[in-house]
Every structure is written in structure tokens, then in C-alpha cells.
Amino acid sequence: MTRPDLHENRDLCSPHRGSVFAALAALVVVGLAALPARAADTRVPLERLIAHADAVVLAVVGTPSTKQTRIALARADGSKARFPFVRYQRRLRVEQVLAAPRRQRAHLGRGAMVLVDEPRWRDQLAAAKQCARDQGCPEVRIETYASTLSHEPRSGQAVLVLLKRTALGWELAADLALDDVARADEARRLLAKRRGGER
Question: What domains can you pick out in the chain, each with its CATH number?
């Protein structure tokens, strides 16, 4: 699933998807033919991700679909880096809560509009700041969900969303942790199985 509008942290040392140099090195080591298989093998299935998600909701993508906040990065000499870090938050209107911590249900009621961050965005920001200061470009490892969606969800589209709760709000439980609402019944069965195992 491509997402051309959601990855604009394009500095050569950007940790959002690992450094460009690391990617080039990977091409040399594993070869182009091996990359698709490796990517497919590392995607997290619904059954696994739902076991660790803090909340699972059915929601409708808002208009506009994202809020973008540009955060300036400082270089080692105090000057401003050419490219800022971009914090992306998805606008989602909750339609139904399938699972959520009891104390958070009031904030996830039907009709609530929530802003959802990309996974581990604060770690990505910290890595971008370190990279801008020429202190190395650490890779932030983020799992990718095996979504059945063929494209980035558009405004007005209903989606199944798997969330993690942080001190600053909600973020996706994994990269691309949104799916077709047709999987809602499957999610309910898996959640029932999870609740049964917690007894």
C-alpha cells in the first residue's frame, strides 16, 4: 500500500524509513529480487497485532485526512536543518469501539474525533534530531501491519483501526495499522478469544 503523502521526512539522514545509505547497502547485500519476499515475511497479521493493541475501533477518516506539524531540526552548529521533521496525525471519527481500556472509553465514544500519530513518532523525532546534529542516524524499527487495503484510506472511508495508547494520546499500533471494515467480525472473534485467555 503506497502512501506518497505521508512520508515527507526526506533528509538523506531521515530515520523515518532508515537512512538512504542503509537502504542502498541492503540492495547490494540481498539483491532486488529478494526484497519483496523479505517485506512480505515481516508484516504482522491481525491475530498477532490485535493481541497487543490497546484499543480497536471502527472509524471514518476525517476531512482533511491528516494534520501535519513541521518541527524544525537544529544542526550541530546551531543552524536550522534544511528539512524539518514532519509529524503526521490522522483525523479519525470513531464509529464503534470494539476494545479499549475502560478509563479511555469516554474519549473514544461514538462521534469522537481523535488525532492518531504514526507509530513511535517520538522515537523517530529523537533520531531525526540526532541525525541533524551529525551524531549518527539510528534506525527506528517499526513493525508493519499486513493490511488488506490496497491504497491509503481517503476522507470519508470507514476503516478498522488498531491503536496504542501513549502519554501524549493515541498512535497506530504498527505502521499501516488500518484495515478494511469487512474484517470487523474477524477482529471481534479474535478479541473474544483474547478476553477468554485473560480470565
Answer: 20-198 (2.40.50.120)
Q: CA 79, CA 96: separation in Å to the nearest integer?
A: 47
Could you identify the residue written with the cell 523525532?
125
Q: What radius of gyration do the chain's Cα atoms show?
A: 18
Q: pLDDT for 109-155, tens place per residue?
A: 899 999 999 999 999 999 999 999 999 899 999 999 999 999 999 99
**pTM as predicted:** 0.77
Are 163 and 109 in contact by the 8 Å Cβ rule? The answer is: no
Helices marked H in 3-89: 20-30, 35-41, 46-50
- Which residues sit opposite 97 in a β-bridge? 57
Tell me the pairing of strands 169-172 and 158-166.
Answer: antiparallel
Residues 19/13, Cβ–Cβ less than 8 Å: yes
Record the cell numbers describing residue 45, joined without a space: 497479521
Q: How far apart are CA 57 and CA 42, in angstroms?
A: 24
Q: Do residues 124 and 16 touch, judged by C-beta distance below 8 A? A: yes
- DSSP assignment letter at 52: T
- Look at phi and psi of residue 126 and say left if phi exceeds 0, alpha if psi is from -120 to 50, else beta: alpha
